[in-house]
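Re-run with default settings, no changes from the original entry. Doing this only to confirm the output is reproducible before filing.
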Amino acid sequence: MNNETTATEEAPRVSTMFRETTLTALSMRAFLTEDVQHLLNGAVSLVRAALCVDFCKVLELQPDGASLLLRAGVGWRPGLVGRATVSADAGSQAGYTLLSNEPVVVEDLRAERRFHGPAVLTEHGVVSGMSVIIPRNGTHYGVLGVHTTRPRAFSPDDVNFLQCAANILGVALRRNQAEAASRSSERKYRNIFQNAVEGIYQSTPDGKILSANPAMAAIHGYASPEEFIADIHDAGQQLYVDPERRKEFKRLMEAQGEVRGFESHVRRKDGRLIWISANAWAVRGADGKILRYEGTVEDITERKQAEATLLAEATRRRILIERSRDGIVVLDQQGKVFEANPRFADMLGYTPEEVLQLHVWDWDRDWPQERVLEAIRTLGPEGAHFETRHWRKDGSYLDVELSNSAAELEGQRLVFCVCRDITERKRAEEEIQQLNQTLELRVQERTAELESANKELESFSYSVSHDLRAPLRGINGYAAMLAEDHAQELDEEGRHTLEVIRAEAARMNQLIEGLLGFARMGRQAMHFAEVDMETMARSAFDECAALAPGRDIQFKLHPLPVAQGDASLLAHVWSNLISNASSSGCTAMRTLKAPASDWHWCSASSRATAAASGRKRRSTKARRFFSPCRRLGTRNQ
């Protein structure tokens, strides 16, 4: 009797110790095992043995929240684990457990009214069972449950043991999830670290490189991070072109704990200078001292070069605009001044600040406001070119030649105008127009005068031809009658006098013919052709010599080139020239010399001297012998 009592009292204590041992073993397995499936498979076996049940299972809540998967189990028909699912709603024991958020105990599934047992439990002849929630990070991983095929009343200790086992699994699952996330994060960070375009680094405040990614090494001209780390032990002296820039970096890190967009000029391994932009932060120890710097570096050399180019271009354009002799104004789509150069403000008599407050109709009154706005809306990139007037601040106006075009800038329509002050040009044009009118009037007056002179010349020619010839014919006729009828009655002196009268009458007739020829010559048109000047000069001399057979005239002619001119007029020139020379009273002929050039304008140069056998004349008087009667034509004549 005493032995039976002792065995009965000893059984619960042994069972409790076994369960504690089971939980310890499960905890150790959860701590040492990284494979979740292996952990769950071992857990269901340990729980089944500790509770002496027929079935044990771990149901995992699926992502859709509508079902639970039999993730691990023992005692179940082969093929169900990893495939079978049950509903996560209140119709199943597992779903009811999740919704009630507390352990569920079933003594007889056949009499259960809270939910309906799934078909898989019925097929396995399940009668009793209990289930608890497996927690994970404030949510539910799933359900841990046990079942028996015989009726059984599970005690609170049984429920507590099962919940402890579920909690151990929850902790393991949470740790496993955290480790998986950590490994994923580490892989992600490592991938970013290795493949980042920006340089990533860690360094000491003294400039020793602790770690660097490939991009950091490549930016500074190194083949690998290892080479970069091994070579750089003082970044301030080895990398920075200006070590003071490194000191400024350290000062900001000490004061602010971080820097953003810190730009520096650094030297690569190959000696080439580049620009970098750094984002960095300080990592401090427990004592507040900076242990290291961490950050990223970007090569901004191309950007800095582009900025320098843009700055130079902007400066050049600004200089061109500000120093332009033309006024330049930019209008917005409301017709207001968007920007203007100093020359435009000066043209209108405003200060640069005042002109920015103006609208186009404030200075161009020829254009109504509505027309200006319409022109701004419709003006194309080809622009327009026209003349207008601009009114100054003082009320005066200036004439302007304006060229404009439209463009879009940052979504805003702008009109660019170049205004040139043409007031002086317009005034000069008006003066030229007035001068042309005056000249035209003078030409008309001169033409009238010439026409009058021509009429007078014609009248004179008529008088010479008729009025002078009539008495001359009488003189010549009576002289002839005296010579024929009374020659015997005259003595030698009388006959000589009569011959003189007849000779002078003939000479007078030649003078009249010469005057008439000169008048006709002034009215006839010129006909240009090649003229053999040497032949023409000899012909003129022969004619002149024939008129003076009693004189001993010597004629020396140098070679003359062919000239361009009117043959008839040139013949008169040579005839007059030689006739004047031969009738000068000298006993010897002058020498005519002409250079063989520039005969297109018949501008021959002549020189006359008296021969040794003849009477000399002063050279000043000799020049008069060869002075021609010239007709003035145009330059083309």
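The two ends are 168 Å apart (CA to CA). The chain has five domains: 10-181, 196-305, 338-421, 440-524, 526-625.
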